[in-house]
TrEMBL record:
This is Nucleotidyl transferase domain-containing protein. InterPro entries: GlmU-like, NTP_transferase_dom, Nucleotide-diphossugar_trans. It comes from Candidatus Wolfebacteria bacterium CG1_02_39_135. The lineage of its organism: Bacteria, Candidatus Wolfeibacteriota. PANTHER family: N-ACETYLMURAMATE ALPHA-1-PHOSPHATE URIDYLYLTRANSFERASE, NUCLEOTIDYL TRANSFERASE. It holds the Pfam family NTP_transferase.
Length: 238
């Protein structure tokens, strides 16, 4: 199976930390974020496709064409037009079933191992107490996707399933027109969750819950991640 890791963004919310580094190459306890991502991939993953952009050469020079037995390919997202736009850059290299991950976040291997046993299409969420700054999803009683509500949009206060940027898809995804994100700041971007919400109107999209997720969007998130990794090193590190 293949994994597509989205790693093209500038990471403007990280401020000066990304002046000389790709955001996914920022160090957490001495290792780039992406190294944790690759380490925690399930055994089923034999090839990784990095979608790179800003400072992408740093990623290529660090990981090369193979990392710990897994083949690595690189595709470039010249136009940073969102997560769905990024995935489209890898379209010609993909087989029928593949995992997609946000390269800026930390995931737990056991969550991903269970997740890849689903049939496409599926997305991974985390139940959190204060989801206001994140996009959330609404499901039916059987756990299938009904709606995606972006951060900053009106929502039911009881919705607390946060989209964590992990998807299990097949090439049927590319049959659908990409859906734009609706916020003013990102109205020129096409989102993976928004496109999945469109797909959900005529096919079932399973929503699975993760036990662990640590986003790395702001400088303060790095110190949070370092504490977590120190505490749970057996789950998140070599």
């Amino acid at each position: 199976m293949q994994a597509v890791v989205l790693a093209a963004g500038r990471g403007v919310r990280m401020g000066d930390l990304t002046n000389d580094s790709a955001k996914p190459m920022l160090k957490v306890n001495g290792k780039p974020i992406l190294e944790y991502t690759l380490f925690n991939l399930p055994e089923e993953i034999s090839e990784v496709i990095f979608v790179i952009g800003y400072k992408g050469d740093l990623i290529k020079s660090y990981f090369g064409d193979e990392w710990k037995g897994r083949k690595i390919k690189y595709v470039v997202q010249e136009n940073l037009n969102g997560s769905a736009g990024a995935l489209h850059q890898a379209k010609d290299f993909l087989e029928d079933k593949f995992l997609v991950l946000n390269g800026n976040d930390l995931y737990q291997r056991s969550d991903l191992e269970k997740f890849v046993n689903n049939e496409p299409s599926a997305l991974l969420v985390k139940e959190i107490e204060n989801p206001e700054k994140f996009g959330v999803v609404k499901t039916d009683d059987d756990g299938y996707l009904l709606e995606v509500i972006e951060s900053g949009r009106p929502r039911d206060k009881n919705l607390n399933l946060v989209n964590i940027g992990a998807y299990l898809l097949n090439k049927k995804f590319f049959d659908y027109q990409l859906a734009k994100k609706s916020t003013e700041i990102s109205e020129k971007e096409f989102g993976l969750p928004q496109t999945l919400a469109t797909m959900a109107k005529d096919c079932k999209i399973k929503v699975e819950k993760a036990e662990f997720w640590q986003p790395l969007g702001y400088p303060e998130d790095i110190s949070k991640a370092e504490k977590i990794i120190s505490q749970f090193s057996s789950k998140l590190t070599q």
